[in-house]
From TrEMBL, chain B:
Protein biosynthesis recorded as keyword: no
Residues passing through the membrane, by range: 21-40, 76-102, 114-137, 149-168, 189-214, 249-268
Location of the ABC transmembrane type-1 domain: 77-268
Origin species: Thalassospira lohafexi
Protein name, UniProt field: Carbohydrate ABC transporter permease
GO cellular component, one term: plasma membrane
Gene Ontology biological process terms in this record: transmembrane transport
Family: Belongs to the binding-protein-dependent transport system permease family.
Length: 356, 282
């Protein structure tokens, strides 16, 4: 177990491009930290900086209070799981797992017992003598994880380990990773662009955008109180609806478009232009009762357990997404009555994108 | 367009492509075929019916007996084989290491160095024959196999480095990084992880390097023409006279000379077909 500390860590490439802008972060013993963000946001770069595969331009990264800026990856006591597995194709799965231990000079019997133990945990016992090419994607990823756990490193680093797997396998492996990490209690840093993975795996979530940590917090905190428009839009699926609005003169509601009025309990000055954020799941269908909002149906997607309805709020071509439980058949053009409780409304400053 | 039509178009294209390739193969192999069948015929039969197969009447091994009994065939053979094998080994090792450095490490002058090496592909080494001869004489290496090996290494390196660099670029970056995280040193990464992965490329380069060396007449002629140092292509020349050529012996020795290169080719070509990176990454 170990702590990982980032102190103003920066990465500037030789061509002057600044990929990481001064990130501060303290990862506790045994904590599962997830870096999430769109492609190109610097999350992988940051992970590779922790691994030692990418140099650190400025600031410090420490593992267990020891600054590792100049330490080679092999000496940082980390193990990394790569997106495309990166197994040695010419070695058997057994040797793939044993290779790192051999290079660290462990005895043969010790290596054998560790590899067999890892294979047992990962249910790979029957595949040890085969080559990686003879395994399915999920099994290969398990071998890659086995290679990481036999080393019993201080820190696990995962670089989008599930993105090459099909949807069902991804869910299974996600549970396996979480289970394994909790059992072994090893500090982990996990990079993903998939916000479902991020929400389910993380003890602490770091939402990155353009080389900056936009928000750091527990997944539920980030879901409930996104600090910026970017975080609000990125976390949650389907994404949060953003509507341009203006606070009414009496400050009791916000006006969206021409006709929609939403009750407010925020403390905002009158007449201010704001961006209103409402999650699709936070609208309530009011049946025949007159709800405060009425909107016509543009399109319906039935997912079985839930239905996504795309509504016309009268603000140009933009759809507003509504998510309701169960199966519903709405004809195009049907007018729905909706309500929303004021504490489910997020307000953001239109200029700065910051939460109000 | 329906699927049927697409399939028909594919089929006709396949017929055309295979037709062209087959024709080329026949044209290329026919002289070798003639060499081999005539090596087993009497001298008269060679001239009377050069295209015919040897039959009970015309079959003769006189060429082979002459070659094996009257000349130093084993010596020529040994010389050619030694020069070829040692050259291949040196070229492969040096080229692979250079290619690894050029593709993996970023250092000032990387591109310039790669270009400089590539120029060697475009400039035929024979243009430098005179200065090479002078150099070898000054080094006191004339009439040695070492001279041939040195020249052939220089001749083989540029193309080998060029091909291997391209292959090295295709090795997934993650694989090297996984090895680095596993605590593998750079030398070991090269020998234990990278080299096994580029075996097909190494085999390709081996074939490209081997054939011109085995077939070369020029450098053995100017650098090592002395007794006991001749290679097989040079050795065969003793049967070719200004007035009389001993065709039985020439054809027999040429037939024999095909065998080792064929064996080497078979060894390497098994590797050529094998795609070894499968399973490394998705």
């Amino acid at each position: 177990m170990a702590t990982v500390t980032l102190n103003q860590a920066e990465k500037t490439y030789a061509n002057g491009y600044k990929a990481i802008h001064g990130i501060n972060l303290e990862i506790q013993h045994g904590e599962f930290t997830v870096l999430v963000g769109p492609s190109g946001c610097g999350k992988s770069t940051l992970l590779r900086m922790i691994a030692g595969l990418e140099s650190i331009s400025d600031g410090e990264i420490s593992i267990d209070d020891k600054v590792v800026n100049k330490v080679a990856p092999a000496d940082r006591d980390i193990a990394m799981v790569f997106q495309n597995y990166a197994l040695y194709p010419h070695m058997s799965n057994y040797n793939n797992m044993a290779y790192g231990l051999r290079n660290h000079g462990h005895s043969k019997s010790e290596i054998d017992s560790k590899v067999r133990e890892a294979a047992r945990i990962l249910q790979l016992e029957d595949h040890l003598e085969r080559k990686p090419s003879q395994l399915s994607g999920g099994q290969r990823q398990r071998v890659a994880m086995g290679r990481a756990i036999v080393r019993q490193p201080k820190v696990f680093l995962f670089d989008e380990p599930l993105s090459n797997l099909d949807a069902k396998l991804r869910v299974d492996m996600r549970l396996e990773i979480k289970n394994l990490q909790q059992r072994l209690g090893i500090t982990s840093v996990y990079v993903t662009h998939d916000q479902v993975e991020a929400m389910t795996l993380a003890d602490r979530l770091i939402v990155m955008n353009g080389g900056v940590a936009e928000q750091i917090g527990s997944p539920i905190d980030i879901y409930e109180k996104p600090e910026t428009l970017f975080v609000a839009g990125f976390i949650g699926s389907p994404a949060m609806n953003f509507l341009p609005g203006k606070v009414s003169d009496d400050r009791t509601h916000v006006v969206v478009g021409d006709k929609v009025k939403l009750d407010l309990d925020h403390d905002v000055e009158a007449g201010r232009n704001v961006t209103v954020g409402i999650r699709p799941e936070h609208f309530r269908l009011c049946g025949d009762d007159a709800g405060p909002v009425s909107a016509s149906v543009r399109m319906v997607e039935s997912l079985g357990a839930e239905t996504l309805v795309y509504l016309d709020f009268g603000i140009g071509n933009e759809n507003v997404t509504l998510r309701v439980q169960g199966t519903h058949q709405f004809a195009k053009g049907t007018v729905l009555k909706l309500s929303i409780t004021p504490d489910m409304i997020h307000l953001f400053d239109t200029e700065t994108g910051k939460r109000i | 367009m329906s699927f049927k039509n697409i399939r028909r178009e594919d089929a006709s294209r396949a017929v055309i492509v295979h037709g062209i390739l087959l024709t080329y193969t026949l044209v290329a192999l026919y002289p070798i075929f003639l060499v081999v069948i005539n090596a087993f015929k009497t001298r008269k039969a060679i001239f009377r019916d050069p295209m015919g197969f040897p039959n009970a009447e015309t079959f003769s091994l006189e060429g082979f007996t002459k070659v094996l009994a009257k000349s130093n065939f084993e010596v020529f053979f040994y010389n050619s084989f030694t020069v070829t094998v040692i050259t291949i080994a040196i070229v492969l090792l040096l080229a692979a290491m250079a290619a690894w450095a050029l593709s993996e490490y970023k250092f000032p002058g990387n591109t310039v160095l790669a270009l400089y090496l590539a120029i060697g592909i475009m400039v035929p080494i024979r243009l430098g024959s005179v200065s090479i001869l002078n150099l070898i004489v000054d080094l006191g290496l004339i009439n040695t196999l070492t001279a041939l090996v040195l020249v052939y290494v220089a001749q083989g390196l540029p193309l080998a480095i060029f091909i291997l660099t391209e292959f090295m670029h295709q090795i997934p970056k993650d694989l090297k990084e996984a090895a680095r995280c596993d605590g593998v040193g750079e030398f070991k990464i090269f020998f234990a992880v990278i080299l096994p992965l580029i075996r097909p490329a190494v085999a390709t380069v081996a074939v490209f390097t081997m054939i011109p060396i085995w077939n070369d007449l020029w450098f053995p002629l100017i650098l090592a023409p002395g007794d006991g140092k001749q290679t097989i292509t040079l050795g065969v020349q003793q049967f070719i006279g200004q007035y009389v050529t001993d065709w039985n012996a020439v054809l027999a020795s040429l037939s024999l000379a095909i065998i080792p290169i064929l064996i080497l080719y078979l060894i390497f070509s098994r590797q050529l077909i094998r795609g070894l990176t499968s399973g490394a990454v998705k």
